[in-house]
Request: fold
Amino acid sequence: MNFIEIGILVLSFLIFLSFRVPIAYAIGLAAFVTLIYSMPFIPSVTTLAQRMATSLDSFTLSAIPFFILAGQIMNRGGIAVRLINFAKAIVGPLPGGLAFVNIISCMLFGAISGSAVAAASAIGGFMNPMMEKDGYDKPFSAAVNITSATTGLIIPPSNVLIVYSLASGGVSIAALFIAGYVPGLLLGLALMIVAAIYSIIKKYPTDKLVSIKTFLERFLDALPSLMLLVVVIGGIVGGIFTATEASAVAVIYTFVLGMLYKEIRLTDMSSILLETIKTSAIVLLLIATSIAMSWVMSYENIPQEISSALLGISENPIVILILINLILLFVGIFMDMTPAVLIFTPIFLPIVTAMGMDPVHFGIIMIMNLCIGLCTPPVGSVLFVGCSVADLKIQKVIKPMLPLFLAMIAVLILITYFEDLTLWLPRVFDLID
Amino acid sequence: MRATIVDILGKVCLTVLFIMLAAVIWQVFSRFILQSPSTATDEISSFSLIWVGLLGAAYATGMHLHLAIDLLPEKMVSRNAAFFDGFVYLSVFVFAFCVMIIGGARLCQLTFQFEQTSASLGLPLGFIYLVVPVAGILICYFSLDSFFAKIKSQKAA
Reply:
C-alpha cells in the first residue's frame, strides 16, 4: 500500500484547511503536493492545469450557473411569497402549522430552484419573522428552515445530482432527478413529524381553515411558479430538453414571471448576474480542483486500496453500506458537498455496483447523506445562510436541530435499505431497468 | 488599481455568462422553431463555462469570497491573524503560480504545438485554455496585493 502518498494527501489537505486556506485551493494544493512527490514538476503542473480546464469543458455542467441564476431571480421575483401563501392555505391549520408551511415552502422552492442555499434564504427570510410573531421560538424556526432547505437538493432539479452524474461517468440525469422525488418527500415528511411533536408540546397556535375561494385564489396565484416544475422536470424526463437546456429555459421563465409580477426590472439584471457569478465561480473552482484531486487519487491507485481495505473488513453488503454511510457522514461534516461528491463517487461507486446496487440509488443515498453535513459546522453552507437570515449564532440553532437530524438519519437508513423507495419512480417512467 | 481590475473582471464574466445563456437558448430555439439544430452552441457554452469558471474564480479571489473553514479554535487564529492570513495568501499564490501559470502556459504551448482544434467550431483549443494562465496571473496579483496590504497595515499598527 502506498501509505506515503495517502499520508501526504490527507495531511497536506488538513494542514491547508486548518490554516484557513479556502477549500477549493486547499484541495488543489493537496493534489499538487501529492503529485510532485511522485512525478517531475513540469508534467505534474501541466496535468493538473489540464484536468482543471477540461473538467469545466462540459455542456452538462453549464446547467449549474443557470440553475443558480434562476434561483437568484426567484429570490427577488415574488415567487417565494406566493409559494408560502399557497402552503399556508394547505397546512396552516394543522398542528405546527407555520413550521409545516416553512417545510413545504422549502420543498416547493427547492423543487423549482434546486438550490438549498437559495431556499434557506428566500423562505427563511419570510418565514422567520412570521413564525416569531406567532410565538415560535427563533432557533427552532431557523432549525426547521435549515434542515428542510436541504430537501431541495434531493427533490429535482438539483445541481448536485448533475455533479454526481458527471462523477459517476454519466448516470442518466433524468433518472436521478425523478428518483429524488420519493426520498425528498419522505425527508420533508420526517421533518414535519418532528416539527409537529415539538409544536404540540410547546402549544404553538394554528391557522384557521381557509375558505375554498381563498384556497383557489392562492393556488392560481402560485400556479405560474409551480408550472416551472412541469416545464423543467417534464421537459427533462420527457426527453424534450437536456438538463442544461431546461435550466436555460428556467432562467427565461423566471425572468418573465418576475417582470410580470413587477418585482424585477431589466436594470436589476446586472446585479443578479454578478451575484450568480460569485456563487457559481466558487462552485466551479471547487469542481475544477476536486476533479484534479480525483485524478491524482486514481493515479496513485487510492480508490482501489480504499475499496480493498473496506472489503477486507467485511464482505457483507449491509456492513459495507453502513461503513460507507458513516464515512460519508464524517466527510460531509468537513467537506462541502460538491468536492465530496466528485472525490468520493469514484471511490465508492465501483464497490457498491459490484455488490449489485444501482448507481441511481447510490447517488440519492450519497446526496442525502451529505445533506446532513450541510447543516453541521464547521462546513455547512446551508447552516451558515440559515443562521445569518435568522440573525442567530450557530450554537443557538444546534440544539433544536438535533431531533431534526435524527429524523434525517432515519430517512437515510430507510432509503439505503429499501431501494424500491428510490428506484420505483424511475422504473415507472422506464428510465432504468 | 485593484478595484478597477475586479470591476472589469466582473463585467467580463457577466458578458461571458450572458453569451453562454444566449447560446443555450438559441440551441433550444433552433431545434424547436427553426427545426435545424445548431451544433456550435454546445461548444460555445462549454468553452464559456471554462472562462466563467476560472475568471470567476479569480474574481471571487479578488473579492475574498472563497469559503474557508474554522477547524482551529477561533482565539488561536485571531491572536495570530497576521500569520494565518499571510500563510493563506502565500498558499493561494503558490497554487496559482505553479499550477495555473506554469502548468497552464505549458498546457497552452502543447495544445498550440499539436494544433488541437475543437470538433465543431474548429477553434484552436490553445486559445480556450489560455484562460488558465490568465486567471492564474490575476489570482497571483490579488494574493500578493492582499499579502503586502496586510504587512503594511501590520506595520502601521
